[in-house]
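Chapter review: from sequence to fold.
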Amino acid sequence: MSFKKFDRQAALSKTLGQERKAVQDRFAAAEAVVSARPGGLANPAVQPSTFSAESAAQALVETGGKTIRVALSLVHDNPYNARTIYQEGLIQELVGSLKAQGQLVPALAVEHPSLPGHYQLIDGHYRKKALMHAGQEQIDVTLVPSGSSSHYYQLSYVANEKRSAQSTLDNAYAWKKLLDDGVVKEHQDIAVLTGTTAPEVSKTLRLLELPASALEKMRTAPERFGISNSYEVTQLSKFVTEAELLEVMDRVIEEDISTRALAKMRASAQEGKGRKPKELPRAYKITHAGSSIGALKEWDSGKVVLEVILSDPKERAHLLATLKEHFGLHE
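The token string follows.
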């Protein structure tokens, strides 16, 4: 039996070609989805789609597609990138690959809208960070057609969904920036852009009401906090201390506790906070001739109760007269 000799160079070239095609296809697919829905991802396509990744990638090349090598200092992040949280472990993996093989796949970028000679990334932020960590000074980018801020966000959002979706916290940060910068006016606009719903957008944005320590904790394992359990964590924060909240979040990260369990915790904490703790009085027993004849009780709220049995009419009359004089009671 004979075996065909393994051609390492041919295999590497094939792999490189496949990786480049995958990036082109992902961007082209995102471009096709966004272009077919100019009114937003929540709306139907303008016409029945005959999209294929291959044809869209070819169109990308025809409308731009020029690959250049530029200084990293000239390449700026997409200000409306759908992803804001980057995992250090993934960056280090890319650093190892870059040191061993160099940059195999170009990032995608547009000419910077306000800085001549500079560029703005659309896809490839992980690669840029890895190159910087590796001490490199240049990056290969493929230029694609320019567009609007909302267009860049949509492309980033869809491209990530097709590869490795951004987290709920990523969405919260990105959506707040869209609102703050006036790219969109209200939650419904974001829902239309992303194909979600206004209530989901509202729940997501409420994450940013959490204490800074809780947001930092969430950034360490964003994949553990989906829309449902993130919402429960946000609701829970209203009824527990910050330290207690962080303990619960640790459990979410380490034990992967369910949304149902979080909902029970929140309901229990809410019930406990809503119920007033029973106030206990301080009681002083009153005795006479070795026998109990009553008690004097006081509460921190200021309430005072005197219960006493006085069989001697003169003694009873004296006590009543003293109390009436003290409180200014007159018949």
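Two observations follow directly from the output. The two ends are 123 Å apart (CA to CA). Strands lie at 67-71, 75-76, 107-111, 119-123, 138-143, 282-288, 291-298, 304-308.
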